[in-house]
Amino acid sequence: MSIYDKLNILTDAAKYDVACTSSGTERKSDGTGIGSCELSGICHSFSADGRCISLLKILFTNECIYDCKYCINRWSNDVKRASFTPDEVCTLTMEFYRRNYIEGLFLSSGILNSPDYTMELLYATLYQLRHKHHFQGYIHVKSIPGASQELIQMTGFLADRMSVNLELPTAESLKALAPNKTRKNILTPMRLVQNKMTENRHEIRLYRNAPRFVPAGQSTQMIIGATPETDYQIVKVAESLYQKFELKRVFYSAFVHVNEDAALPARTGEGPPLLREHRLYQADWLLRYYHFQADELLSNENPNFNVVFDPKCNWALKHLEEFPVEVNLADYKMLLRVPGIGYKSAVRIVKARRLGRLDFGDLKKIGVVLKRALYFITCNGRMMYPTKMDEDYITRNLLSAGEKLPFEVTGMGYRQISLFDDVRFGNCRENYV
Questions:
Q1: What is the percent of the chain with per-residue pLDDT over 90, rounded to a whole number?
Q2: In this structure, are residues 61 and 48 in contact, taking their beta carbons and an 8 Å threshold?
Q3: What is the pTM of this model?
Q4: 3-state helix, strand, coil in the chain (%, to 5)
């Protein structure tokens, strides 16, 4: 099999892993324009300073000894199999980089022979890239659950980011759909990476030139909709991961029906639960940047997100006793809870009001979405319009003002969505949470 044939198979097999943010599309060049988007293989991620970077996204192999019921690459599926060699991955990465197609590599893998054998191949690949080819670009690699600590540690000194997929929110679901995996095998490398990162930070303080271990942190991914967990359970798991394992990101992947199995949800014409995935990403943003807690957003009595309003707006409607908020006096954390005020807008408000009193015109210039915020704020003791602080009244007015779901959520077919571009977060992502 040629390296190009392998590339076609193993880039397509990697498209269901959203832990590097987004994947390619099928649009190709017609010869009259500039640029081309291949079926898969080039994905986009975001660096710590906000830059969008292009990555070669591949599996090292789609052969796997495990039989996870939701996975297209499970051993019981009759799919075309392929495996790269470390030299082939290095060749692809360097040639793509020289052509300015990519700025880095996202490398995952099925389990070939054993976790240690697979992890050793991934380590050999990264070692060649860093030391033989002197590649200094971004590398995101998956740590293999069950692999030895030594291999994971050695690989961590070569990668910028590592991740191990949690797969499913609870141990019971993992046992039902991924019988070859255990929660312990998944959490052990997470804890190892966390502890080694902490240790490495101390080493760098003492020795400036000490090698860096996973400097971009670690992430994970959960499949949403394959098992009966509620949004509340999923958000609680994510909150726990952030607090206990110091993860950079938890990615949520809407379940795609690629296998027929009695243990999986019945196939329907509705497609992947993309709206649910969208709401979970919004809630995740609130947990990380808006000082919310999972118990504030959902509860056992109200375990799922509102399909009409985003989690922040829904929280505000249920807690009208906290509003209206005087923007010239409220503290930063309270401003963050106002619908229509994002974290950047909140910072601008706090800085601007040191120079004088703000009015609604100033808020609009700052970037506040007034059509949402006007029901929850006052400027100099006055609301923008006479408003009744009643949930039904505000709900009707928000809906009549065009409060609706983005088309990218309601109208698109399946592809791996990005928090920034697939739901119009872009430059105004703060205004959607």
A1: 73
A2: no
A3: 0.86
A4: 40, 10, 50
**Beta-strand (E) ranges in 51-199?**
52-59, 104-108, 138-142, 161-163
Give burial (CB, 10 Å; 0-12/13-18/19+) of 39: middle
Half-sphere exposure of 261 (CA within 13 A, CB side): 20
Label residues 356-383 b or e (16+ Cβ within 10 Å = b). eebebebbeebbbbeebbbbbbbbeeee
Helix (H, G, I), strand (E, B) or coil at 194: helix
* 360 vs 349: CA distance, rounded Å: 11
Average pLDDT, the chain: 87
Per-residue pLDDT tens over the stretch 323-371: 999 999 999 999 999 999 999 999 999 999 999 999 999 999 999 999 9
Token digits for 306? Answer: 């509102």
SS3 25: coil
DSSP code per residue over 294-363: HHHH--SSS-S--SSS-HHHHHHHHTGGG--EETTT--HHHHTTSTT--HHHHHHHHHHTTSS---HHHH
- Let me know: does 284 contact 238? Beta carbons within 8 Å: yes
Q: What is the mean pLDDT of residues 194-223?
A: 93
CA angle 108, 114, 118 (to 5 degrees): 35
For 139, residues 6+ apart whose C-beta sits below 8 A from its C-beta are: 104, 105, 107, 126, 129, 158, 159, 160, 161
Whole-number pLDDT of residue 25: 42
